[in-house]
## 1
Amino acid sequence: MLKHLLADFDAWLGAGPLGSLPLLPGLLKTVAAALFSPLTEVTSLHAWWLVAIDLVLIAGLFFLVQRPGAPQGQPGDFLGFCFPRRILTHPSTRTDLKLYFVGAVVSPLTRLFWRFNAILVAGVLLQGLIALAGPAPRVLTWGWGSGLIVAFAIAIGRDLGFYACHLAHHRIPALWAFHKVHHSAEVMTPLAAKRNHPVELALIPPCDAMGTALILAPVLYLFATPPSPIELFGVSLVTVVFAALGAHLYHSHIWLVWPAWLQRLILCPAQHHIHHSSAPRHHDKNMANMFTFWDWLFGTLYIAPKTREAFRLGVYGAAVQLHPGVLAAYLVPFADAARAVRPWLPAPLRPRLGAWADALESRCNDRLGPGSPVGAESRSAAAS
C-alpha cells in the first residue's frame, strides 16, 4: 500500500501545478524517498527496518547479558538503555539528522566517478592477466562452497580499498578536512554513520572498486561464468553476517567488545568507538570497516578493553565543535582544504587562497551568529 501511495504522490507532483516549477518536484520526491523507501524495499546496508530490527535484537541481548539478575518485565529500562535522552537530545544528534536529509538531496552530486566501478577496473586487470598468463582458462564452476569463499574474498578486497581510502583521509590534510566532518560527531548514533561530506562520499566508491577488482579479476579469469551474489532477504550474505555481529552498533553508545584474538580479525563496535575518540592514544587507529587484520598488518590496530575506556568523542586536537550546523559542515572543509594545499601552490597564489578561506569561514560565522566556534579552532585543528 505504501508503494502505491508513493506512486500516486509522484503522479500528483507531475500532473499538478508544482510540476511546472523547476527542481521542486524532484526535491520533494527525493525527500519522500529518504523517508519511506527504506520501508518499502531493501536497497542498502542502511535499510531502516533492517537496521532497526538488528539494533533492537543485539541491544536486547547485550542488555540482558550485561545486567545479570536485573529485574525482568521493565520495558522502560530497556528503552532508556537503547535510546538515552542525553544522546537523542544532544546538539550533535540534531546536526546528524539535518545532514542526513540534506545528504539525501545532494547525494546524486556525489556520483562523480560512477563509471569508475569494480567491473571497469576488473576488466582492465583481466586484460592484464590475459596478456601475462595467456587466455582465461575458465575451468572452475560454481557451488555453495566456492560461492561463499568468493563472496567473503570480494568483501575482503573491498575492505582493503576502503582501508586505503580511509587511511588517506586521515593522513592527507586536504582529505582530512572533509573526513573531519564525520569525526566531529560528539555522540554516537546510527545517524552519525551518514554524517559525511559529499566530497568524501565521491571518493570512497572508486577506492572500493579498486579493492573489489583485485579479487573479481582473478575470479573472472578462472571461473566459467561470472559470480552471482549470495543474498538473504535481498541483502548480501556478507552484509547480513556483519550486521549480526553488530555492524549497526559501530555508531551507537553500546560498548560491545569481542575477545582480543577476534578483534585482530573482525571489527567490533567498541573498536570503532575508539576510532572516533579524540584522545591522542587513539589517533588514527582502527581504520578498517570490517576486517581488522588490515589494521593489524599495517600497524593501526587498537584492541578495545572489556571495560569502556574514558575518552571524549570528536575531532583530535579540537576543543570545540567545528561543524555545529549543516552550513559549517559543508563549507568549512573547503576552507580547511584550501589552507592544506596552500603551501604547495605558487607563492603569488597563496595569499589569495588564504584570504578566500578566511572569507568563507567568516561567512559561516556570520550565519551561525556571535560566539560561533568556527574559525580559529578550525584552523588549529586543520593544522594538527
Note: The chain has a mean pLDDT of 80.
## 2
Amino acid sequence: MFREKNVNAPFFSVVIPTHNRAEMLREAIRSVLGQSFQEFEMLVVDDYSTDHTKEVVGSFNDDRVVYIMNDRGAGGAGTRNAGIFRARGKWVAFLDDDDIWLPQKLTVLHGKILEDGGSAGIIYTGAISYDFEKERELQPRIPDKEGQLDRKLLCNNCIGSFSAVAIRTDLLIHVGGLDEDFTALQDRELYTRIARLTRVAYVKTVLSYIRVANTDRISFSPKKKLESSLLYWRKNRALINGDPKLRHKAASRVFLFALQDGDLKESVKAFPWTAAGLVVDLPNARHTLRSVYALYRSKLALLLKSYSATRKIIFRLKRARSRQW
C-alpha cells in the first residue's frame, strides 16, 4: 500500500533494490543505520529473492527499515520504482544492495542541499571502487561536472553509480521514475531525463564504496548493455543523430557491445559511424580501437593456448600409435 505524504515525513527516503544478496544487503543496511544524519526512512525492495533476504531485513529492530516486495516489473528499474513511488522523503537517495555508504554521507548531502538552495534536483558525490574481500580501496571517481548536464549525459554517464546519487522526489515522480524497458544503463537514462528539468550539483568527497569483483552485476552482461545502448539511442535519436560526435560515440558503444556479445549484424550496422570517429572524434576512435584490440587479444591468447594443447595431444597420440606398431 502506498503511504500518504505528511508533515512528519523524513528528509531522505533511502531506496535499496535487492535480489538474492542477503549478506551483502546486511552490510548495506548497517551502513545506512550508521549514518550521522538520522532523518530518513529506508525502503528495501525485494525483487523476489529466494534466499533469506526477508529475514535479514526483519532482523533490524528499527521502524524506519521497511521491507517491500516488488510489485512492478522485474529487474533493477522496476524494483527501484517500487521504492520511488512509496517514498515519503523530500529526496530519494539510492543505494545498491552490494555497496555501502560512509557514515557522513547523508549529513554531507543534507548540508549541500541546504547550501544549494533548491536550484539542483540531482546531487552526486565522490565514490570509490572497493574490494571488500581484500578490504582495499581501488579506483576513485571524483565528480567534476555540474550545471546543465543533459547534453553531456548524451555523450556518457558523467554522474556515475546510483549509490552516489540523490534526486528530488517530486522530479522522480514527475518523469515517471525509471524506464522499465531498460535492463542496463538505467541510471544514465534516468539522469538524462531529469537533467533536462534541473541543474546537477556535486560533492567531491568520497562517500560511497562501490563493490568490485561481483560478477552477477548487470555491468558484466554485454547482451543487456547492447540492447539498452540501442534503446537509449532510439529514445534520443534526434539529438544524438544531429551531432556527428554524439552519433559516433553512440555507434562505437553499440559496436563494442555487439562484438562482446558476438552479434555480427549489429556490429556491422554500427561500424560506419564508429569509423567516422577517425574524423569527428579521434581520441574516442583510438579508445575504441584499443578496446577492440584488448577484446581480440584475449580471445587470440585463448585460441593459441588451445592450439598448443591440441598439438601436444596429437603428438602424444602419434607417439603412442608408433609404439603399438
Note: The chain has two domains: 12-218, 221-301.
## 3
Amino acid sequence: MVNLLKLLKLLFLRRRSKEGGVDVTKLKLPDRVKAPNAIGNSSPKGGIGKTTIQLESGVQLVLRGKNVIFIDWDIMSPRLSLRLLKELKSGPSLVKVLIGLIDITEAVQETVITGKRGSVTVYVVPAVTEEDIPDNINRLLEEMNEPSKVIKIVTKMKGSVEKLAKEYDVVFNDYPVPSWATYYTYQHLLSTTSSWINLLSDSNPNMIQLIAQLHQRYTKNIPVLGTIINMVRPTPEELNRAKEYALGLCKEVNGRVAMAIPFDGKLYDVFAEGLASPASLNYPPESSPALMLIKKFVDVLEEVVEGGSPPQKCEVFSPTH
C-alpha cells in the first residue's frame, strides 16, 4: 500500500516551502471537455461513501453493457485505486502521465470485480504508486508552481480525458477532497476534465454548505448533475430532512437531480480481507432502497452519457421500499 502519511507530509512540506505559487485564477485555462460521457464526482470530505456510490453506478452501467473507466485524480489518498487494484507498488499512474513519462492510454489497467451474482470488467487509471514517491510527486508539484507548465499540465489533463472518452462509454473522474489547501492549483485544473459533476455529502448542514462553497470556488464551470446526501439514517424523519438538504443544495448550484440515499450495510460489507465487492454484484436492486435509488440515478447517467438531456430542474428522487 502507498505510504499515505509519507505522501501527505511531502505534499504539505512542498506547499509550505513555496510562498505564493501560481494564481490560477489569472491564467487563461482551456474550456472544459465537451465529452458528455465525462462525469466528475466530488465530496467535501472523505468517508461519506463517494467512492462506493461511484463504483455502484459504474458497475450498474457495465451490467447494462457500457465500457466504464475510472480516473483516480486523488494523488494524496488514492482510495479508488486501492479498492480496485488492492496494491500500488509500481507501474503506470496518473502522476506519470501528468509529468509526461507516459501517455494516458498506457496508464489504463483492467480489473475484474467478482460478486455473488457474477463478474464485471472495469478499467482504472491509478492515481499514484509507491515508486512515484518522492521524485515524481516533487516534479509534479514543482511544475504546478510554474505558470507555463501549469497550462501544459491542464492541457494534458483535458486531452487525456477526451482521449479516453472516445474509447470508453463512460469516464468517471474521482476527484480528491477539495478542502485540502495543498490542492489549490490542482483543483482549479480539474475543472476542465468533466462535462457534468455530482456533489456528494453527508447529512451535516455544515458539510453541505462547504461543498456548495467549494464548488463555487473550484468547479463552478462544470454543470451539476446530481446533489446526493449519502449514508442517511434510514428513518422517515432523517430521510425527509436529508431530502430537503439535497434539494436546497441542488437549487443553490443549479443541479438537475437531488436525492438522499439511506444507509444500507449491504453497500459497505467488510470481510477479513477488506471491503466486499460492490453490492450491485451481490444483491438484486429490489432488496435495497439504496440500490434502487442508485439504479434510478444510473438511468439519468445513462441518458446523459449517450448525449441525452437530464431533468431540466431539481428533480427529487426518493427511496422506495
Note: The chain is about 40% helix and 20% strand.
